[in-house]
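Support request, priority: normal
Reporter: lab tech (M.K.)
Component: structure prediction queue

Hi team, I submitted a job for NnrS family protein from Nitrosomonas mobilis yesterday, and the status page still shows it as pending. I've pasted the exact input below so you can check whether something in the sequence is tripping the parser. The sequence length should be 415 residues. Please let me know if I need to resubmit or if it's stuck on your end.
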Amino acid sequence: MNPLTAAWGQLSAAPHRGPFLIGAIQGVLTFLWWNADLLGRSGLIAGFPGLHGQIAPIWIHAFLMIYTFFPFFIVGFLFTTFPSWVNGEKIKPFLYMTVSVVMALGTLVFYIGLIYGTPFIFLGLLLLLLGWWVAIFALLKVLLTAPGGDKRHAWVCASAFVGGWLGLAAYTFWLLTESVTFLNFSRQAGIWFFLLPILIAVSHRMIPFFASRVLQNYVVIRPYYLLWVMLACSVLHGLLYFINFEQYAWVSDLLLAACTLYFSYVWGFARSFSVRLLAVLHIAFAWLGLAMLLFSLQSFLLWSIEEGQRHWLGLAPLHVLTIGYFASMVLGMASRVTLGHSGRPLELDGYTWLLFLGFQVAVLFRILPEILPTIFAGVPWLHLVAGGVWLVCFMLWAGKYAPIFWRARVDGKPG
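Reply from support: The job had stalled in the queue. We restarted it manually and it finished. Here are the results:
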């Protein structure tokens, strides 16, 4: 058999394989670009062109992370788990491979547009919108045709995907109209209406479930009313920031932080360290609690103190959320799905554990200059170190796990 045909056959053998592989590649490309851009703007690489034309680098970086990196892992995870969550029909290979290919093409064409101009950028965005629409269709098809099962988490994730699609559309309209309103909506929707609701729902469903499988005498505590409170707080935060009332978000942010810290406690944060594959999920979830505490503090300062002192903490809360919670949770879940669905033992080896700890160090390097600006004002290169550490750790993770996606299961089973 032709090697390419064999590889395609393996990639299409399970819903997570194609999206995870593309996500691994895209993570490397995204941070290679961002690190090169940081080096260029710092003057360490003379004459670096930036590859961004008329779009500010920060909005390219945000777009690539929110709409072209995390979604591949989320699609792969949801396409795998949705049918089992709701006792529904499995998603057909044609659908999940179509989503993978169209989204990958859209991302590639977007990159080409950063070099050769806006027509390619718009074509890339249209392809991404199409790929997301097919993904939403596939998820809703499973939900609407499933005879039973608990559909609450599934509905949250499907609804959040619609919110993400609207954010992606808003980014496209921003480039067409140059209206800052569309850009602001895209930023808020991508994080607070899409990524955070999905990851909260996944955490709420999967962390106590996984813990119950490996910890003795474990009691699952998973009240749904707190899930709805957390989701409402996420949406409210996004809405308040969208309408420039962020000084009032501290109430909802503090409530979300309290719910998160409560769940970390009752789900057994301390006990989780006896099983590394569970501990990585708990550590990632704990970052959410810290992020929302920082957001609430920042918002409270906006509400309560003088204009000149309002912006303490800078982007630290955002990076605790996106790198600490989003990236760590995605990598933890992706590692677990990859191991379990390739026939390998559900055990996190020392190599992957060290890489995961490296991601946590990257978070600290990124936020220290903004949390303690007086102490770290003379070391602006910490941002470069944070980006470099994250890139190296992710490249090593991808080098270990990516080949699994185009190879057969080690236990000989299908899928």
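The chain has a mean pLDDT of 91. Residues 63 and 387 are 16 Å apart (CA to CA). Let us know if anything else looks off. Ticket resolved.
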